[in-house]
Amino acid sequence: MRTTINLDDDALIAARHVAQRERVSLGDAISQLIRLGASKGSGLASADATPLRGRFALLPVRGEVITTAHVRDLMEREGI
After folding, report:
1. Which of 76, 10, 17 is nearest to 45 (CA)?
2. pLDDT tens digits for range 3-27
3. Would you say residue 49 lies in a domain?
C-alpha cells in the first residue's frame, strides 16, 4: 500500500539504519518497526531503546577508544 507520512528526523534515521542493516526497503523497515512497537503493547518508546543525541545514536560505554581503524574496518564489513 502506498501512503505519505511525516516522520521526525530521529525516526527516519532509525528506519534508514534498520533498512540498511536488514537490506530491505525503507517502507519494509518502517513496517517492521511499527509491528515491533505494536507487539510490545505500547505506543511509547521503550526504556531500552538506543538514546539519541541530535541525529546520532549514543553507544554504551565499552572502556575502549574507537579509532579511525575501527571505523574503517566496520565500514568494510558493512560494505559502506
Report:
1. 10
2. 899 999 889 999 999 999 999 999 9
3. no
